[in-house]
Amino acid sequence: MTTLGELLRDNRDMIVQRWFYDGLATYPEDSASAFKRQKDPFANPIGHSLRLGTKAIFDALLDGADSDTIQHHLNEIVKIRAVQQMTASEAIRFVFSLKQAVRAELGHAARDPQMVDELEAFDGKVDRVALAAFDTYVQCREQVSELRVSEVKRQVSWIIDRVNRRDANPEMAPADPA
Amino acid sequence: MNVLIPLVAVGGLFIVGFLGAVLGMGWIFGVAFPYLAVAFFLGGLSYRVIGWANSPVPFRIPTTCGQQKSLPWIKRQRIENPHSTLEVIGRMALEVLCFRSLLRNTKVEMVDGKRLVYATDLSLWIGAMAMHWSFLIILIRHLRFFTNPVPYFATFTEKLDGFMEIGLPVFFVTTVVFVIAVAYLLYRRLAISQVRYISLLGDYFPLFLLLGIGVSGFFLRHLTKTDVAAVKELALSWTHFAPVVPETISPLFFGHLFLVSVLLAYFPFSKLAHMAGVFLSPTRNLANTNREIRHINPWNYPVKVHTYEEYEDELREKMKTAGIPVERQ
Amino acid sequence: MAKPDEPEFYEKEDLLKVDWKPPTKGWMDVPVDIRPGTYIYPGKAKNLKILDLPNARDWAVTDQDWKLPADWKTTILDGMADRLSKYRSFKLFMDVCVRCGACADKCHFFIGSGDPKNMPVLRAELLRSIYRKDFTALGKVFGKLAGGRELTEDVIKEWFYYFYQCTECRRCSVFCPYGIDTAEITMMGRELLGLLGLYVNWVIEPVANCFMVGNHLGIQPHGLKDTLEFMADDIEEATGIRVDIPINKKGAEILFVTPSGDFVAEPGIFTCMSYMLLFHELGLDYTWSTYASDGGNFGLFTSHETLKRLNAKIYTEAKRLGVKWILGGECGHMWRVIHQYMDTMTGPADFLEVPKSPMTGTVFEHARSTKMIHLMEFTADLIRNNKLKLDPSRNDHITVTFHDSCNPARAMGIFEEPRYVIRSVCNNFVEMPENTIREQTFCCGGGAGLGTDENMEMRLRGGMPRGNAVRYVQEQHGVNQMAAMCAIDRATLTTVADYWAPGVKVTGISELVANAMIFTGEKKRTENLRLEPIPGVAEDDEVEAPSDE
Question: Which of A38, B49, C82, C118 has the smallest number of Cβ neighbours within 10 A?
Answer without folding.
Answer: C82
